[in-house]
Amino acid sequence: MDLVDLLLHPVRLRIVHAMSGGRALATSQLCALLPDVSKATVYRQVGLLVDAGLLEIEDERRVRGAVERRYRLRRERAVVDAETAAAVLPAEHRRAFTVAMAALLAEFHAYLDRPGADPAADLVGYRQHAMWLSREELAALIEDMREVLTRRITNEPSPERTRYLISPIFFPAEAPAAADGR
Asked: Which of the listed residues 55, 56, 142, 166 has the most CB atoms within 10 Å of its CB?
């Protein structure tokens, strides 16, 4: 299974998100982070991610007679490079976007289902803004956002930090105008 196909699954994508920040988690901890997903599904998807080399075993220990493994994300293996992304056909983009939105929707529902969820206090935001941008302005905006996000994306978990999902999405909402303005 290639990387794109591997990541085009909402539960596997959510596992990759949950493992971000250099975390080492046991499958039982992942089950707690994905309470809307059956344990069997989480265990099966973790197995696929391990077999594909996206997750590696951090350590093992005996827990109540069984071996518990903690896994770590191999971040460098979980990246779709520009060349691969450029080769993706429109139908595959449609599928990838659907999976990304399904994973995002599942994460948001899991958040709202948690006791004490408070979107206002948690600074939850979901907005869309229409912008008129030239190709150069869009490239500059993406670079600005990349710089801002890169400074924080390597933050590791700590007691004062909460894992947030940020999902920037860019696409032209209409066809570009012709040179004569039509």
From this structure: 55
What residues have CB less than 8 Å from 147, skipping those under 6 apart? none
Q: What is the per-residue pLDDT across 20-70, written as a single tens digit (0 to 9) for each?
A: 888 999 999 999 999 999 999 999 999 999 999 999 999 998 888 888 999
Alpha carbon 51 to its chain's center: 19
d(CA 165, CA 143): 19
Q: 3-state class of 130 per DSSP?
A: coil
Indicate the pairing of strand 24-26 with strand 55-63.
Answer: unpaired
Examine residue 126 and state whether it is found in any structural domain, yes or no.
Answer: no
Q: Does the pTM of the predicted model rise above 0.85?
A: no
DSSP H or E run through 15: helix 10-18
What count of residues does the chain have?
Answer: 182
The CA-based diameter of the chain, rounded to the nearest angstrom, is 74
- Asked, for residue 171, whether it belongs to a domain, the answer is no
